[in-house]
Design brief:
The protein has ten helices and six strands. The protein is of the alpha/beta class. The chain has two domains: about 140 residues, Response regulator (Rossmann fold, 3-Layer(aba) Sandwich), CATH 3.40.50; about 60 residues, Winged helix-like DNA-binding domain superfamily/Winged helix DNA-binding domain (Arc Repressor Mutant, subunit A, Orthogonal Bundle). The longest helix is centred in the last third of the chain and has 15 residues. It is rod-shaped. One of its GO terms (molecular function) is DNA binding.
Length: about 210
C-alpha cells in the first residue's frame, strides 16, 4: 500500500531534503507540500493524505493550532511532527492537539521512515527526549510519606506530637538533646515547615502520623 504524504515546513531546503529522502521509499508518495499553516490547511483538504509531516514554528497557524485544525478538517489524517524543538511549550500543545508522533530533525532516516509507517497505522511515535518529557509530566509528583522520614525521625516526631519536650524525647530514646534538635531540623526541612507545631500538624494532615 502506498502512503500519501504532505510535507509542511517554511524552509525550502528542508522540504527539498525531506522530499528527496522520503522519495527513496517505494511505498511513499509525496502528494503535496506547504510553507506555512494556511497553505497546509488548503493542501491537506485538497489531497487528503495519510500522513502530514510538519514543523511547529512557521507562519500562522502553526504548532498546536495547526495540528488541531488539520485534525478537525481532515479527521483521517495522521500528523507527525518533525522539528528541532523539544521543550514543554512545543511538545505538550502538539500532543494535546492530536499529533500522533513527535520526532526531532536529527533523527536517522530509517527512524523517520519507520515513524511515518507507524503513524499511518495509527501508532504513536515519540523521540526519546520527548517521551521522557511527557512521562515526567504525567508521572504523579512524589508526596512525603512515612518512608521519607527515617525511623528515628518518626520516633522523635511521634513523641513531639504527644507533647514531650526535647529533653523528655531524648531521655525516652536514649539519645542526647542535641540529637533530638538535629532530627527536628531534618523533619522541618522535609515537611517544609518552620516549627514543631507545624510539623505535627503537617504530619497528621499527610498521614505520616495517625491520630
Amino acid at each position: 500500500m502506498t502512503l500519501r504524504l504532505v510535507v509542511v515546513d517554511d524552509h525550502p531546503v528542508v522540504r527539498d531534503g525531506l522530499r528527496g529522502m522520503l522519495g527513496t521509499q517505494p511505498d511513499f508518495e509525496i502528494v503535496g507540500e506547504a510553507a506555512g499553516g494556511l497553505e497546509a490547511l488548503t493542501v491537506v483538504e485538497a489531497v487528503v493524505p495519510d500522513v502530514v509531516l510538519t514543523d511547529l514554528r512557521m507562519p500562522e497557524p502553526s504548532g498546536g493550532t495547526l495540528i488541531r485544525l488539520l485534525r478537525e478538517r481532515v479527521p483521517s489524517v495522521r500528523v507527525l511532527v518533525l522539528t528541532t524543538h523539544d521543550t514543554d511549550s512545543d511538545v505538550l500543545p502538539a500532543v494535546e492537539a492530536g499529533a500522533i508522533g513527535y520526532l526531532l530533525k536529527d533523527a536517522p532516516r530509517e527512524e523517520l521512515f519507520r515513524a511515518v509507517r507507524a503513524a499511518a497505522r495509527g501508532e504513536t511515535v515519540l523521540a526519546p527526549s520527548v517521551a521522557a518529557l511527557l512521562l515526567e509530566r504525567v508521572r504523579p509528583k512524589p508526596t512525603l510519606t512515612r518512608a521519607r522520614l527515617s525511623a528515628r525521625e518518626l520516633d522523635v516526631l511521634a513523641l513531639i506530637a504527644e507533647g514531650r519536650t526535647n529533653r523528655e524525647a531524648a531521655a525516652e530514646l536514649f539519645i542526647s538533646e542535641a540529637t533530638v534538635k538535629t532530627h527536628l531540623l531534618h523533619i522541618y526541612a522535609k515537611l517544609e515547615v518552620p516549627d514543631r507545631a507545624s510539623a505535627v500538624a503537617a504530619a497528621y494532615r499527610r498521614g505520616i502520623l495517625e491520630r
